[in-house]
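Pilot study result, target chain (124 residues):
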Amino acid sequence: VQLQASGGGLVQAGGSLGLSCAASGRTFRTDAMYWFRQAPGKERENVAAISGRGSNKFYADSVKGRFTISRDNAKNTVYLQMNNLKPEDTAVYYCASHPTYSPVGRAWDTMYSRGKGTQVTVSS
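Predicted structure:
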């Protein structure tokens, strides 16, 4: 699976931004999809995940209640809707895939396919 994230940009604190990740490959519909982010000087963090059919979702505590992950298997796309953004959400955001869904998230180096990132900057 090849992945391409898009939708990043500059937004004020309290604002919203939506990210998309377009996938190519015949396993997308069964793969679990993950969103990661990496802020300067920090480790890459798994912020959200969704199972192949979209019935199970994981969120990191830092984004729970503000971010929503979803997918459209007909369009081979996974989304991350980010609301009530905070300056600490500033990071490069990445999408990645894995054959199985984990309810506690996964580490970046365990992902089978990894896309290039898109920058999200939240100003105070």
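One observation from the pilot: Residues 95 and 119 are 12 Å apart (CA to CA). A full batch analysis is planned for the follow-on phase.
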